[in-house]
Fold this protein.
Amino acid sequence: MAQATGIKEIIKPENLVYRKTKVMTDNILSYCPGCGHGTAHRILAEIIDEEGLQSETIGISPVGCSVLLYEFIDIDWQEAAHGRAPALATAIKRLLPDKFVFTYQGDGDLAAIGTAETIHTCNRGENILIIFINNGIYGMTGGQMAPTTLPGMKSSTSPYGRDVKLMGNPLKMTDIVATLPGTYYVTRQSVHTPVNVRKTKKAIRKAVHYQKLNKGTCFIEIVSNCPSGWKMTPVEANKWMEANMFPFYPLGDLKVPAEENAQKTTNSEKND
Amino acid sequence: MEKELRLMKGNEAVAEAAIRTGADGYFGYPITPQSEILEYLMEADPYHTTGMVVLQAESEVAAINMVYGGAACGKKVMTTSSSPGISLKQEGITYIAGAELPCLIVNVVRGGPGLGTIQPAQSDYFQATKGGGHGDYHLIVLAPASVQEMADFVELGFDLAFKYRNPVMMLSDGAIGQMMEKVWLSPQKERSKTVPAWATTGKPATRDRIIITSLDLDPNGQERFNQKLVAKYNEIREKEVRYEEFQCEDAEYILVAYGTSARVCMKSIQLARAQGIKVGLLRPITLFPFPTKRLNELAGKVKMMVSVEMSAGQMVEDVMLSVNGKVPVYHFGRMGGIVTEPEEVVDFLKSKI
Ligand SMILES: Cc1ncc(C[n+]2csc(CCOP(=O)(O)OP(=O)(O)O)c2C)c(N)n1
Ligand code: SF4
Ligand SMILES: [Mg+2]
C-alpha cells in the first residue's frame, strides 16, 4: 500500500473526482447517519450552483428534522411555522415574481398540519417548487406516526403497527396534488442510489426551468428514510424502503407537462 | 397633491388607505364585520395601478403566513380579520414577532368567546395587548375611534412596524368598521422601490445569506434575543405612547376608554357635566404602549377612575396598574355586541360617587 504517499500529493486537481458544492456551507449536517435529508440537500445545492441561482433564490425551510436547512445551503432563507411554508412561498413569489422560490418539507409538515396550505397553494398554481421528503414518520419529534406511515408500520405512537381502522389510512398527497389543475409537474423520486440521485436532480432542474417559464406549481416527492425513527441501520432502512415504501409510493412521474409528452412522442417517432 | 374628502365606512377607509400609502400586499379571509376590506380591495384591483398584490387566502392561518413571507421580503404587507379569525392568526403573529418582521394586522372586533356575535365588542384587548400567541412578545396596538383614524392608522401602523421591526395591530371594532363618516384621504404614494437590508431578496456574492427565523436552539442565544425584545418594547414604551385628553383639566373623575367606548364617553361627559359632575376622558390611542405615566399623574388629581369598555373588564387591569392604588378604579361596560349607552355610564359613575 502507498503508505508513504502524503495527503498533499493526493490532493491535486487532476485527482479531483468529487468536490463540495460551492453553495453548501461548511456547517456540519445535523442528520443521523444514512439519512436521506443530507443527500437531498446536496443535489438541491448542486442545482442552485449549476443553474447560477444563488442570488435569485429564496428557500423556505420547514419544521421537522430539516428545520436547520438554512444552516447548510448558502442562500437567503425564511423559516416557516410547521406546515405553513407554501403560504410563505405564495406571498414571496407574488411579491418577487422573478425569484426562484421553493419549499422543502417533511411529510408531517406537508401532509398533516400543512394539508390545507399544500392543497390550496397547488390548486392556485402558485409558480413555486415544493420538495416533499416523505420518510413515513415524524423524524424530528422522535418517530411518531405520520400521515404517510404505512399500514402495519410501527412508530412510537403506533407501537403495535398502524391499524388503519383506528388510525386512518396513509395519505398519498402527491397523488392528490397531481389531480389539481394548478400543478404543472408532479413526480415521485428517491435519493438512495446514484441512479435515483441523478433522476431526482434532473427533476429539480426541470422544475427550475418550468418556474422560469411561469408554468405553475412543481411538486417533487422524495421517498426517503429515517434510520433512527425506523430503528434500522442505514443499509437496512434503504432495503426496507425499497421493499415496503416503494410498492405503496411507486417512483415515477405522476404528471408531466403536455408539451413534454408531445416532445417525447416526436422524439420516439424520430427514433422509430 | 391635496387630501381628498370622502364618505366611507371604516373598513373601506382601511382598504383605500392601504392602497394610497403604497402597501405591497394584502392577504385576507372573509369574516363579518370586516369583509368589506377584502371586497373593496378586490374591486379596486390595485395590482393594475400601484402593483399591490391582493389575495384571498384559504384561511386566516394561510393569510398570516403569507404576511410572514411578504414581510420577510421587506415588503409592506397586511392582513385584516375579526376576532375568531384573529385567534387563528395567533401562531403566525408570534412567529412574526419572533422573527422581528414588520406588518399591519387589523382586528375589527366582534363579541366572543367562540363564534360569539357579529356585533361590535372590545373583548380582544387582552389578546391584542398581552401577546395573544405564545412566548414573550408584544404588538404595538393602535385603537382608532373614527373612520378617519382607521385610515390614518394604516400609514402610522406601517411606519411604526418598520421603525421597530415589529408587528402592529389596529384594534378597531364592528361599530367603527361599519359606520360611515367623512374621511380625508392622503394622496397616492408610490410603493417603495427599496427594501431594508435585513430582507430576503436572493443572496448576492457581496453579502452573507439572510435567514429569517424565530428559532434559536441555544438557550443563551434565545435569552439574549428575549432581552433584545424587552429592550425594544421598553423603547416603544418610552417613545410611542399616544393618547388624547378631553376635559381632564378640572376633572374630579376620569373615564378611560378607547375606540367606540371613547365616543360614548364623550357624550356621557356632556350629560354628567350638565348635572354638575366634573368628569373627563383619557382616550388611549396606543393600547400597547399604554399611557401608564399619564394615568398615574392624573390619579393624583382626581377621586376615581372608571374604565369603560365593551368587555367584562380587560383594560381596567392596566388602568389599575397605572394608578397603582392611588384612587379607586372601576370597570363599566356592556358585552355581547351591545354598545354601552352614554346614560348608563353616567348612572354607573353616580352610583360610585
Ligand atoms: C405547531 C407545531 N406542532 C408540533 C410541532 C412539533 N413537531 C416538530 S417537527 C414535527 C414533525 C416533523 O415531521 P416531518 O414533517 O415528517 O419531518 P421529518 O422530521 O420526518 O423530516 C412535529 C410534530 C411543532 N414544532 N409545531
Ligand atoms: S431522525 Fe430520521 S429524518 Fe431525522 S435526521 Fe435522523 S434519520 Fe433523518
Ligand atoms: Mg417525516
